[in-house]
Amino acid sequence: MESLIEVRDLRFQFPDGTEALRGIDFRMMRGECVILFGPNGSGKTTFALHLNGLLRGKGDIRICGMPMETKNLAAIRRKVGLVFQDPDEQLFMPTVLEDVAFGLLNQGMPVEQARKAALRELELVGMAHAAARAPYHLSCGEKRRVALAGVLAMQPEILVLDEPTTSLDPPAQRDLVDLLLELPQVKIVTTHDGHFARAIGTRAVFFREGRVAGEGGVEEVLRRFNWESYATAREPGAGGFARRS
Amino acid sequence: MRHTILDRWSAGDSWLHRRDARAKLGCLLLLLAWIGTTSPFPPEAAAGYGGLLLVAIATAGLPVVGLFGRAALVLPFTVTFAAIALVSGETNRAVALLEKSYLSALAIATVAGVTPMPAILNAAEAFGAPRILITVTQFLYRYLFVLVEKGHRMKLAAECRGGFRWQAAGGAVAVLFGSGYQTAEGVHQAMLARGFEGKVPSLRRTHWRAADTMLVVGLSLALIAGRLAWSL
Q: What pLDDT does A240 receive?
C-alpha cells in the first residue's frame, strides 16, 4: 500500500536546547485519519510543523515520495495543508476572501480563477456570506472555518490540523466533524478531545516527551494511556496545580 | 483586531477606491512635491490644497473627522520645528511648516484610506521601489497590528487585576515585544505554509483605465492652475 507520509528517526532540538522530538518514526497511508494525542509539550505540534517543512530537524521525511529538501519545499507545501491552532495567526489579509485566495495566488493562479475558487471553498465551509468581511470581526468558530477554507482552497492531499476544536462550542465541533468526514484528504489531527477523535479518527498515535509512546485504534490508545480520566495518577515529575492547604 | 481602521476604509468601493493604485500613488507623490515646493505658502494655497483633499475625501466617502484626527498625529513632530522657527521670529515659516506637514499627512491618510496596503506596495514596486523595502514594509505593517492587538489584550488583563500602573510599563513593554515576536513568528509560518515567497499577492487587479488618466491629468492641471494663480 502506498504511504503518503514516511518519517524515520526524526529529531529536533529548539535553540534553547530543549529536545522536542527524540526519534519519531511515523507512516501514513491513503484513506487514514490519524489522531495525535499526548500531553502539552510532548512534541505533537512540533512534529506537525515538520510535515510542511516549517521546522527542519534531523532524520528522514518523505511526503508523497518526495524527500524533505529545500528544492521540494514548494511542492510539499502544495501537498500538505496545515491548519494552525490559533486562527488569528493564520488570517492575515484584509478580507476573508483575500485570505482564502492567498495560497492560490501564491501558486500562480490567475486572479479571477483564484477569486472563484476561494468563493467555492468559502461556500463549502459555510462562510461565503462573510467573504467581504475583515477576518478579525469573525467569531472563533468562523475564523476556524475560514482558516480551513484557506488551506482547502490549495487542494492539498494531506490535511494537518493542530487542535482544531480549541475554543469551539459543541455545535461548531459537530459541524467541524461533519465537514472533516466529508473531505477526501488524509488527515493528521492533534487534539486532546477523545469524543472528537473517536468521531473522525481511524488510528491514533500517543506522543510523550518527544517520542511515540504507543499507537493503535483511537479507543485502544485512549484506554491504554488513560487519556480521558480526570483521576489519572500523575507520573512522577509531571507538573500540575498545587492544592491550597 | 482593533487597529485596522485603514483596512476597513480601504475596502470601500467608491470611484477613488476603484482607481489603479499606481494612479493614486502617482497623484500622492505629485501632491506632496507640490505642497513641499509651494513657497511662500499663502492662506489661499493652504485652502486650495485643503479643498482638493476635501473633494477627494467626499468622493471616497471617508469619515472627515476620523481622517483629520489621524492626520493630526504628525503635529507633535512638526510643532517642535515650528516652535524653533517661531522663536527665531519667522512666524510665516512656522505656520507654513505646520500647514504643509498637516496637509501632507492628510493626503497620505486619504490615499491609504482608498487603497489597500498590498495594492499600495504593488504600485510602489511598479514605480521601482526595491523588493527588500517592499517586503520589510509588508511585514512591518502586519506586525504593527500584532503588537497593537497584544497591547490591547495586556491592558485589559492589567485592568482586570486592579488597573494599569505606569511603574510596571517597562516590564510590560518587554513582555509585549516578546509575545508579539512569538505571534509574528506564527503569522510568518502560516504565510510560508501557504506558499509565501516574499510577495503578498492581491486579489484586486485594477487595470489602468481612462478614468485613471483623467485623475492624474485633472490633478496636474489643478495644481498648475493653482500655482499660476498664487504667483500672479
A: 59
Question: At residue A231, what are phi and psi to the nearest 5 degrees?
Answer: -90, 10
What pLDDT score was predicted for residue B155?
A: 81
What's the pLDDT at A241? Answer: 61
Looking at residue A136, its pLDDT comes to 74
Does A241 fall in a domain? Answer: no
**A180 within domain boundaries:** yes
Burial class of residue B191 in the structure, from the number of CB atoms within 10 Å of its CB (0-12 exposed, 13-18 middle, 19+ buried): buried
Q: How far apart are CA B193 and CA A66, in angstroms?
A: 17
Q: Do A92 and B142 touch (CB under 8 A)?
A: yes
Q: Is residue A202 part of a domain?
A: yes
Could you give the CA distance from residue A155 to residue A185 in angstroms, rounded to a whole number? 9
* A vs B: CB pairs below 8 A: 82
Cβ contact, residue pair B193, A77, below 8 Å: yes
Domain membership of residue A171 as a residue range: 3-88+156-231
Average pLDDT per consecutive 10 residues, chain B (232 residues; last block may be shorter): 70 92 96 91 90 95 93 91 91 93 96 89 88 80 76 80 72 78 85 86 80 95 88 67
Look at residue A94 and tell me if it is in a domain: no
Shortest Cα distance from B115 to chain A (angstroms)?
A: 11
Per-residue pLDDT reduced to its tens digit, A135-166: 877 888 889 899 999 999 999 999 999 999 98
Residue pointed to by grid coordinates 492587538: B149
CATH code of the domain in which A66 resides: 3.40.50.300
* Shortest alpha-carbon distance between residue B182 and chain A (Å): 10
Rg (CA), chain A: 18
Q: How many domains does chain A have?
A: 1
Residue A29, Cβ neighbours under 10 Å: how many?
A: 14
